[in-house]
Amino acid sequence: MYSPSMVFGVYAPQASAGGSARLQAQLRTWLPVLAFSMVFAVESTSYFGADRTSEPLQRIVEAIFGYDVCVHWNLIHFFIRKTGHFMGYGMFSLICFRAFWIELRGVASLLPRQLRAHGLAILATCLVASADEFHQSFVPNRSGQFSDVVLDCCGAAMMGLALFLSMQVVEGRRKAQTSLQRCLDPGYAGGSA
User: Fold this and answer.
1) Which residues span the domain enclosing 79?
2) Phi then psi for 161, rounded to 5 degrees?
3) Per the domain annotation, does 21 fall within a domain?
4) In a domain, 193, yes or no
5) DSSP conformational letter for 44
6) Cα–Cα distances in Å, from 14 out to 9, 28, 52, 102, 187?
7) pTM for this entry
8) Domain assignment present for 152
9) 113-134 burial, b if ≥16 CB within 10 A, otherwise e?
10) What is the rounded CA–CA span in Å between residue 34 and residue 31?
């Protein structure tokens, strides 16, 4: 399987003989993963517990939807926090996919590169989510919950599925365009469209 260069080619490290260039390429590949992991580390502190986020979020929701939300605030706050888990770890999985996609270029395997990158991204997401919940079990106003790890992994799987399907559509269109080009131009040698 293959990815459109407009999505991943811009960020792919360029092959170079210098050690400094290799280090820069590794930083471009893995720094987004590390940065997103640091966001999780900060959010895993006592400052971002449900008891501390409830009031500021309630004020924002009330400003948007009015004061009627106060009646159901606990349920709304719960859904905001769980949606944050789902979306945050889903985005983390996409960032991990990008890093693994770049790293797996040229690596021979029986599995297609896209499936390996997706599998490793979901595994990395599961490990980071587990470590995050384990850490939260030691924080006074937080609780480590296995259900949050499952929710995080579901977010990773759903975002991965959306990306996989998008890549399949782009690849299918590119193949159809190449096929059409061959039909219309008998001298077509397979250049980029």
Assistant:
1) 5-184
2) -65, -40
3) yes
4) no
5) T
6) 10, 10, 45, 10, 32
7) 0.79
8) yes
9) bbebbbebbbebbbebbbbbbe
10) 5
How far is 52 from 90, CA to CA, in rounded Å?
Answer: 24
- How many other CB atoms are found less than 10 A from the CB of residue 82? 14
Query: For the packed helices 113-136 and 19-43, what is the interaxial angle rounded to 10 degrees?
Result: 40
What does the pLDDT look like over 45-79, one tens digit per residue? Answer: 888 888 888 889 888 888 888 878 778 888 988 99
Which tens digit of pLDDT belongs to each residue from 180-193? 888 887 766 655 54
In sequence order, which residues have a C-beta less than 8 Å from that of residue 54 and are 6 or more positions away? 73, 77
Find the helix packing angle between 19-43 and 73-103, rounded to 10°: 170
Q: What letter represents residue 155's amino acid?
A: G
The answer to the question of residue 189 being in a domain is no
Three-state DSSP state, 145: coil
What is the C-alpha to C-alpha distance for residues 120 and 82, in angstroms, rounded to an integer? 24
How far is Cα of residue 16 from the mean position of the Cα atoms in its chain?
28
Between the alpha carbon of residue 36 and those of residues 81, 91, 102, 139, the distances in Å are 17, 9, 18, 21
Number of domains comprising the chain: 1
